[in-house]
Amino acid sequence: MMALNYSLLDVFAGAPFQGTQVPVVMLDSANSSDASKTAIAGEFQQTETVFIEPGNDASPVTVFNSKGKQLFGAHTILAASYVAYEMGLTKDEGEFASFLLKQNEQLIESFIDKGDSSPGAIQFARVLNPTIDRYTPEVPRLAAALNIDEKHISFSKYKPMVVSVDKPTLIVPFTKPEHVLAASLNPDRWSDLFGGVYTSELFLFAPGTITGFTEFHGRLLNPSLPRDAFPPIGAVMPEFIAYLAEQGETAPGTHTLSVDRGSHETRKSILHAEFDKRPGKEVRCRIGGNVIKMGTGSLLYS
C-alpha cells in the first residue's frame, strides 16, 4: 500500500467553493499506466483529474477521467500549471514563471504570476487554426431540439456555426443568459438533426452575465449530460474564441472578453481571454483566470 499525494483546486474561481474542482495527483513511475490513472480519476468522481509525473519526460502531464485519457482544457491547463509551480517544475522568467505542455504535437505555454506565498493569476497561450462550417440546421429546428422559443436564437446578432479547433462544436447564440439556462436537449428532435451536424457537442452562449462580472455567459451541452448540468467550459474556449474572431464585425486587432459558467444555484466560473485577429494570419489567444487551492491529501493505492 502506498500513498499518492494530491491537491484539490478550484479553477476559474472568484471565491472558494466556486469554479471547477480539479484534483491534481503527483505520480511516480510505478503508477503511470493509463489503467491506473483511469481508476484513480474515477475515485475522485470529478469531471477530470490531472496527473503530474516529473520523471516521465515523454508525457509529464496528462488528464484522465473515469472513461480514460482526455484532451487538455483551459481548467486542466491552469490546474497543472499551479501545481507544477509549487513543485518547482516551471521556468523562472523574472516576475513570472512559464510552463510548457504538449498536446497533439502542439506546444501550449502557460504563464504563472509569482504570488507572495502561492502562485498568482495564470494564463496560457495558444495559436488557433480552426475549421469553420457555416452550414447548420435551420433555427426553428435547432430551437425545437433545444426546447426553446426560436426567437431567443433568431433575434441574436450572431449566427449558429460549427467550429473545430480541438473538437467540432456547434456554437449556438442566444439573446440572454436566462434562455441559455433554460435550454435542454429534446432527444427525439436532436436525433433528427444529428446526422447533419456531425458533432454531439454544443456550446450555447449569450451576451450578458449571471455573476455580474462578464461580457458573456456560456454553457456546454451534449446528449450524455443530465438535464440540469452546467459542466466546465474551459475545453471549448478555443472554439468560442475562434468563433468570435470569425465574425465580420470583429475588427483586426486585440480583443478581450470574459465568460461566466454555471447557474444561480450551482458553482460558477469566470474565464478571461484575449485574442489577436490579423488578416491572413492565425488567431493567437490567451486564456486565464484564478486558481484557489482548497486542500491536499493522500490517496492510498496498492
Automatic annotation (TrEMBL):
Species this chain originates from: Alcanivorax borkumensis (strain ATCC 700651 / DSM 11573 / NCIMB 13689 / SK2)
Entry GO MF terms: isomerase activity
Active site per the UniProt annotation: 48
Superkingdom as given in the UniProt entry: Bacteria
GO CC terms in record: cytoplasm
Name the record gives this protein: Phenazine biosynthesis protein
UniProt similarity note: Belongs to the PhzF family.
